[in-house]
Amino acid sequence: MRAHRRRLGLSQEDLAERIGISTSTIGKVEAGRISQPRPATVRLLADAFGLTGAERDEFCGGADSPPPAPRVMSLLPPDVHPFAGRADELARLDALLDGQSGRPSVAVIATLSGMAGVGKTSLAVHWAHRVADQFPDGRLYVNLRGFDPSGRVMDPADAVRGFLDTLGVPAEQIPADADAQAGRYRNLLAGRRVLIVLDNARDAEQVRPLLPGTPTAAVLITSRSQLTGLIATDGARPIQLGVLSPEESRDLLNERLGKTRVAAEPGALPDIVEACAGLPLALSIAAARAQQSGFPLAALAADLNEAGHRLNVLDAGDPLSDVRAIFSWSYATLTPPAARLFRLLGVHPGADLSTLAAAALAGEPVPETRRLLSQLTRANLATERLPGRYNQHDLLRAYAAELVAPDEAGAAEARILAHYVHTTCAANRLLYPTLNPIAVPLGPLPPGAAVEPIAGQQAALAWLTVEHGNLLAAAAHSVAAGLHTYTWQLAWGLDTFHYRQSHPQDQMTTWRAAVTAAERLDIPGVRAYTHRRLGEAYRGLGRSDEAYAQVREALRRYRDAGDVVGEGDVHLDLSMLAELEGNLDEALEHAEHALTAYQSADAQDRALARSLNTVGWFRTLLGDHEAALEFCRKALAINMRLGIEESIASTLDSLGHAYRRLGRYDEAVDHCRRAVEIFQRMGYGPLTAESLERLGDTHRDAGHPEAAREAWTRALETRTRLNHEAAVQVLKQKLH
User: 1.10.287.1490, 1.10.260.40, 2.40.160.120, 3.30.1330.60: which CATH number matches 2-60?
Assistant: First the structure.
């Protein structure tokens, strides 16, 4: 035996680990102190030495009679009934088995990870029953208790011993050494078609001793952790389990409650689905409460949507059916800094946040915050939905909000709101560099908060686009909390973005709140400006009566204050309102009032240029094209000198229209193209579409139908993206 061992370069310890017996036994056999080893031991040695044929027969000496096959066992818990949804995940698991023949040297290992209550065990057990006939040699299952409320995590050695017992190994033949036990376990599974379900694993180290060494086995591991180590070093295939879709959630409730009962109250089902946010455990608990009480589903929906009451409703009376309790088991595994960040995420007003925003929320440096976010992500207590952007399930956020202390929440709220307000106003200033200084000055940043570094207009536009939902949530939070300064500043900071990107509804919502805030702030000029901008939002929505009411209120306040330039600004707004209603003569009159006001007050050149262009625009709409050219050329010269790109583009567009009406098509095309390029680069969606449509009209009039079609098609794409239905229909008619 010693010769065979040395031929393979094995130490006694290596051989003992390979066949699952003790090193002392190997030493005694080689020393002759055990003259007749057990037949099973002799066969294991022959397997380890790779002996076959006559050489094996000689070595075994009659001990090589076929060993009894391990008992075919199925330790799987009962299948889940009813089971709803998860078609995609089941297909992915099936595909792993389909591809097993292409990986002959290793076992198939899959990790199924996700947040608490998302249905990992249910899916694993259901799939295991579904494919049981593909594993005729046994289906093993163990709950590793990785997140047990008692804190008693199963030792992997205990799981191995349990499997050895299940596989028929007599207690006296189970080695005392844990590594030897694992070796014996792997040897018993060699060449056998066995499915092993390792449920509720804590980490990779708990799982590794239970992984088989044979390619004929398959392993499915569930965990609240992502088990990245197994994926990196053991070749595990990850499947991240998310929440159920609204359709799958409805299917689950239909299965649990019965289609007849659900159909009797169709209006309640969407509210229940939304409150449970796709979490299978929450949906199951809600269905159980409805089944037990027999109360109308509308009553359950009302309970679930009562502020601060949702987690109380999602408690069926024991730890395994209490959403709050199962969340707590994951929370208890966190380090103190990660637990603090988890709590603070419940304070964040929006749906997701960037790493820098999370750092502001926590008042920590970005590198440390990134590390803590990684901990939360690995624990499935947060999700990195895009690189560097994180969110939480709604019920997790509700749980986090319950845990955070009031003083801790107040400081975090101050930091995150300041981060959003300061960055939004900085981005607005980049989008519109010539905008007048903000009338409600920004205060100092709280310690731990920071402004997002934004370089240039395109970066500002990109940041506002990504953060738009969060900024609206921050504005709504500021309103609810009575933070009037932040309410006004967010309306101001978002205004250019809302106008250029055609968000009139959001523009109206923020400025309506700002009107109330301005009354509380009582800063000269702020109220008049706020009414004026709200009027602009109403104009964008086509609500002329409300727009006129706001603009006239602004005009009254400017007159009372003796602000002639403010009056001029309002007259320009009134000119656009008159244009909206088709009153071009009245529109020109207001534009000329604005020009006179600016000239008398020696207003800034940019205001003068804007009024010159507006007068020119209405002149050409009324047919006085030569006069229009004169006014617009003066405006263009001022704007070119000042370098105000949005004003340059507006003036080029006006000149293009006048040149077209005069039949000077080459000049018209040149001016329209230049206007389109600037509007598009600066993110002016509606104005880009308008200039493209006018460019198409010019090409049509010049006898260039293909060029006209190209411009109209681009205009149609922009209008469609902006949901401008009426304009879309007009363009479709031009294209047909």
Answer: 1.10.260.40
